[in-house]
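Subject: Protein record for review, amino acid sequence with backbone structure tokens
How to read it: Take the token row as a discrete description of the fold.
Enclosed: The protein record, placed directly beneath this head.
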Amino acid sequence: MGHSKANVKNTIMPNESPNNIVLNKSYTFALSIVELYKDLTDVKKEYVLSKQLLRSGTSIGANIAEAQAAISKKDFIAKLSISAQESRETQYWLRLLVDSHFVDKDEQRISEMFKEVDGLIRLLTSIIKSAQKNKGNV
């Protein structure tokens, strides 16, 4: 496919702390999703599944960004829980695109995307569990 992932590798979200790992990983992942969406629509002429992937894949980081300004611990946990759900939905759309032969699971950037979204799920789950455990302390 025509677009390169090189320009989105190790991207830090503008105006954010480089130490916010989950926010920066989700931002970089969203850029990868946008690039895949462009390829799917431009090259493969696939518009339905790719739009679903675009929505869920970019929503992950948007909800993490919203969580940074949460008004309470409960709000913080809710926003991150939505991000975790969107991550799982993104996995679903990626699997569907592979199984319907729009993308090749062995293509490096696709296998990387699966690893990245899996990492986001694990990271979000860990943050959510930690926040729930410490809920009474804030």
Q: What stands out?
A: Confidence is low (pLDDT under 50) at residues 1-6. The chain has one domain: 6-133.
